[in-house]
Input
Amino acid sequence: MLEEFKKFILKGDVVSLSTGVLIGAAFGKIVEGFTKGIVEPIMKLVGGSPNVSLGWKISEFKDDKGVVSPNMLDIGMIINATLGFLITAAVIFFIIIKPYNALMARVKKAEPAPEPAGPSDEVKLLTEIRDALKK
Output
């Protein structure tokens, strides 16, 4: 079992995936900084605060100090998370994915088209047999 686990861990897929997750986490901080530093201030300027507060009090509870706090179903939290996701996805798409795809399309156009390969040996042999049968 240990040998099988060792093979699994040392597989290229696991190493690539873990590297991708780490890079993704680091990149997420860049996107978060861009969103909070540039996109959100512009949104606040145009439409006010992007924070949605929408919830229902379902009960109250007392903590250890006797402070009464409401127990809320907070739909606004889900709406805020969804809006944050959509903003982040849009930032990634328009700032990274679109330029990357355009660059890759240019690189692909610049590469010369590969020469078409001639027929394989098998096809040549079958062609000879066909021609021989015709005679």
Remarks:
- The mean pLDDT is 81.
